[in-house]
Specification:
With 348 residues, the chain is of the alpha/beta class. Helices cover 43% and strands 16% of the residues. α5 links the parallel β5 and β6. The chain starts with a strand and ends in a 5-residue tail after the last helix. The mean pLDDT is 96. It has one domain: NAD(P)-binding Rossmann-like Domain (Rossmann fold). The strands form three sheets. The chain has a seven-stranded parallel beta sheet, sandwiched between helices. A three-stranded mixed beta sheet has the order 7-9-11. Strands 8-12 form a two-stranded parallel sheet. It binds nicotinamide-adenine-dinucleotide and 2'deoxy-thymidine-5'-diphospho-alpha-D-glucose. Nicotinamide-adenine-dinucleotide binds next to α1, α4, β5 and β7. 2'deoxy-thymidine-5'-diphospho-alpha-D-glucose (DAU) binds next to α6 and β8.
Length: 348
């Protein structure tokens, strides 16, 4: 099988490329990636000499480039996206371009090239915040709250429409929060690890009691592999791990693994429109794809922390100047009365 992976120089895409090359010895992969701030070829240095892997630099919004990439391809797994909620709050322009228009461009090119399967890597954020005690199924209403989530919902609904309108063989997966090796340290877990290692404060938004369902990236890759091979055309599959924990608890566990004190935790102003909880019902994926997450959170966190400890050169390269100026822009303005009270150990 000839696969196109878009966004393969990013966190999940690069893990997926490694996963597929290792498990499917007859598959070849073409990685189409623009190499934005979060994409880095250093992440793929271990596969770049593999004869079943090729890299094509390009923007998923570039119609000619995408058509060229699509030639002779059997299936597409589409990861490329602007992926960080906080950046989408600062400016959502690139989010709408890449996530909505880029997806439309790929869907059109794939349809015209006769691609037999198109997996859209969507997200649980399309459902919005989960009420306490409830888990979203694939039939639930979509109610995205951030510009990032809204742009991913646009992509998700476009893919659905291409199946309904053209019978184009699309599969949509909606996964929860991933963690693991090669995650850009703007996201919570690698941000905690990389800052804690340097003894820097850890910014905790609001009261830190927002809940996320954490899945190891390898379990997500296994779910995508299963969807690619066993999924039914036009179907949506939730991929969650059932590891629901408040952010503060996750931060404390990581500090313990790194051997740093809880005093590094610093409450800062909350994210506007912050979703309180994500939670998915993944029964359909377990039943139809014969998939289940396997990596226990404590084991996965330890493996992840160990990976960052052993890969200081990767951290150094991705946290160069652009990262530091982003950090200043994002965090210097975060201050609030609530944050000051919480930092003094007071109550809300
Ligand atoms: P990431 O930011 O680490 O990687 C994104 C990759 O896409 C980068 O390599 C970047 O260079 C590339 N890219 C960005 N714009 C592009 C464009 N216009 N053309 C071509 N390439 C472009 O993101 P990630 O965390 O690996 O997420 C991958 C996908 O998975 C995204 O679609 C995201 O919405 C989805 N997802 C992520 C999570 C998570 O927890 N990280 C959970 C569920 C779903
Ligand atoms: O749920 C899937 C989504 O998970 C993906 O679609 C997104 O691409 C991915 O970025 C992620 O979104 P989140 O907003 O949940 O992830 P993030 O790592 O940014 O934040 C996780 C939680 O930690 C969230 O409640 C906000 C909080 N947080 C985050 C940062 C960066 C902090 O408290 N402090 C921080 O500095």
């Amino acid at each position: 099988m000839k696969l196109i992976v878009t966004g393969g120089a990013g966190f999940i895409g690069s893990n997926f490329i490694r996963y597929i090359l290792a498990r499917h010895p007859r598959y070849s992969i073409r990685n189409l990636d623009k190499l934005t701030y979060s994409g880095n070829l250093y992440t793929l240095r271990d596969v770049e000499k593999n004869r079943r892997y090729t890299f094509l630099r390009g923007d998923v919004c570039d119609r000619h480039k995408v058509q060229e990439a699509m030639r002779g391809v059997d299936a597409v797994v589409h990861f490329a996206a602007e992926s960080h909620v906080d950046r989408s709050i600062l400016d959502s322009t690139a989010f709408v371009k890449t996530n909505v228009l880029g997806t439309q461009c790929l869907l059109d090119a794939a349809r015209h090239a006769g691609v037999k399967r198109f997996v859209l890597v969507s997200t649980d954020e399309v459902y919005g915040s989960a009420p306490s005690g409830e888990k979203f199924t694939e039939e639930c209403l979509l109610a995205p709250n951030s510009p990032y989530a809204a742009s991913k919902t646009g992509a998700d609904l476009l893919a659905r429409a291409y199946f309904r309108t053209y019978g184009f063989p699309v599969i949509i997966t909606r996964c929860t929060n991933n963690y693991g090796p090669y995650q850009y340290p703007e996201k919570f877990i690698p941000l905690i690890v990389t800052r804690a290692l340097q003894g820097q404060n850890i910014p905790v938004y609001g009261d830190g009691l927002q809940v996320r369902d954490w899945i190891h990236v390898t379990d997500h890759c296994a779910g995508l592999d299963a969807a690619l091979h066993q999924g039914r055309d036009g179907e949506i599959y939730n991929l969650g791990a059932g590891n629901e924990w408040p952010n503060l608890e996750i931060a404390r566990r990581i500090l313990q693994l790194v051997g740093k004190p809880d005093s590094l935790l610093t409450y800062v102003q909350d994210r506007p429109g912050h979703d309180r909880r994500y939670a998915l019902n993944s029964d359909k994926a377990c039943r139809e794809l014969n998939w289940a997450p396997k990596i226990a959170l404590n084991d996965g966190l330890k493996q992840t922390v160990d990976w960052y400890l052993s890969n200081s050169e990767w951290i150094r390269r991705v946290t160069a100047r652009v990262y530091r100026s982003y950090y200043r822009q994002q965090y210097e303005r975060r201050d609030s009365t609530l944050a000051k009270v919480l930092n003094r150990g007071g109550k809300k």
